[in-house]
Every structure is written in structure tokens, then in C-alpha cells.
Write a structure and sequence with these properties.
It contains three helices and 14 strands. The protein is α+β, with helices and mostly antiparallel strands. The radius of gyration is 20 Å and the shape is globular.
Length: 223
């Protein structure tokens, strides 16, 4: 009987170890994506300059940072899931703009993704060495896009990307359309090394600072 209990315990521990390995939880690390743009327009578009760009996501506990770099310039979003506040830094054409967001601003900015639904399909593929499942995402507006995610990975900070908050895994590739243009983001590298806390520091100078409301008004005025 003692041997049976011991064997049962060993099997339980083994299964637990296998499950833990399969379900790798990321509380700190880096995700790097490559951007590919396919434009259906005959004439050159400003979005063509994004083709070949990159998006790098840094995660450290409740802190997250996303850097999008392309021929157009650089845009950084720094978010604190504990306070809900965020800062967006834009560097385009030699101009540097900082937009501050309250928790309410952040929720308003991402309200289109609050009730997003993901439906997993039978299609699979391997990306960066990880087995991925294909899901079709449907927004409240009815628009859809596709995403390949790894159920073997999970991120403790679900707020790192509002789009994938309800996704049962980590998005390694996603693609959506806007008009005649297709945007595709594919993971090129994932790192589990510690991320410097300084990555989440907000610049003290060098930027024109405005609130989210002021930026919204400015955008309306330029339309």
C-alpha cells in the first residue's frame, strides 16, 4: 500500500511538472514582433512606411511598455496596470509629443476591445518554436481579425495589451485589415530575461505634454 501511495505521488508530481512546463507563465520578459504591410492601393500610402517596422513589448509585473519603430518614427506606450494610468510618447518628423492618460482615459481608448470575443479554430502552426492555435476575434462593432496564439504561454499582467486581455494564451501572430491594407505582426523573439525598471520611466523633459482630452481635440481639429 505504501508503495502504491508513493507511486501515485510520483505520478502526480510528474504530471504537475509537465503541466507547469506546458503552461509557462511570464511575469517578466520581452516580446519582439516584425511588421509586414500589404497595401492594395496602386499609389504609395503613408502606411507603407510601417512595412518592415518592429514592435517590442516589455513586461515587468504590473508595468508594460510597447515600442513601435518604423521609417515614420517611434511610438511608445507605457502602462501601469495597478493605477490604470498610461503615457504615450510619439516621435515623428523631429517632433516629440507626450500624451498622459488617466485610468478612465485608458479605458475609453480601449473600449472597443473590452467585449472582444475569440473563437478558436482547428488550424494550427508553429511560430518561433511554439505550437499555436488560430482564433478569429470579433469586436463589438462586428469587425474581425485573426490571431495565432500559444496556449503554452500566459502573461500574468493581462493588461499589457487590451486587445488580447481575454485570449487564452499569448498572441504570436495577428493580422487585420483596414480598407485595402493588411497589417501582420509576427513574433520574431521572446526573452525571459529581467527587464530594467528604467524601461518604464517617464521622461521629465524634451516632450510637448498634453492630456488625452487635449490630444483628442487636436485630432478632431486636424480632420
Amino acid at each position: 500500500m505504501k508503495k502504491m501511495k508513493t507511486a501515485g505521488l510520483l505520478i502526480t508530481l510528474l504530471l504537475s511538472a509537465v503541466f507547469s512546463f506546458a503552461q509557462k507563465t511570464i511575469s517578466e520578459g520581452t516580446l519582439a514582433y516584425d511588421i509586414v504591410i500589404q497595401s492594395g492601393n496602386k499609389e504609395p500610402q503613408i502606411t507603407d512606411a510601417i512595412d518592415g517596422g518592429t514592435v517590442t513589448v516589455y513586461i515587468k509585473g504590473a508595468q508594460s511598455r510597447s515600442d513601435m519603430v518604423s521609417a515614420l518614427g517611434k511610438e511608445t506606450t507605457i502602462h501601469d496596470s495597478k493605477t490604470g494610468t498610461a503615457v504615450i510618447l510619439k516621435e515623428y518628423s523631429g517632433q516629440k509629443l507626450m500624451i498622459t492618460l488617466t485610468k478612465e482615459n485608458w479605458e475609453q481608448k480601449n473600449k472597443n476591445y473590452s467585449d472582444i470575443k475569440f473563437e478558436t479554430t482547428e488550424e494550427t502552426k508553429t511560430i518561433a518554436g511554439y505550437n499555436c492555435k488560430k482564433a478569429v476575434a470579433t469586436l463589438p462593432s462586428g469587425k474581425t481579425f485573426t490571431v495565432f496564439y500559444s496556449p503554452d504561454l500566459t502573461i500574468t499582467n493581462k493588461e499589457y495589451n487590451a486587445t488580447f486581455k481575454n485570449l487564452p494564451g499569448v498572441a504570436l501572430e495577428y493580422e487585420y485589415e483596414s480598407g485595402a491594407t493588411k497589417y501582420k505582426y509576427t513574433l520574431s523573439k521572446i526573452g525571459f530575461e529581467p527587464v530594467a525598471l528604467s524601461k518604464f520611466d517617464v521622461p521629465k523633459s524634451g516632450y510637448r505634454v498634453m492630456t488625452y482630452e487635449e490630444n483628442q481635440q487636436m485630432r478632431k481639429g486636424s480632420q
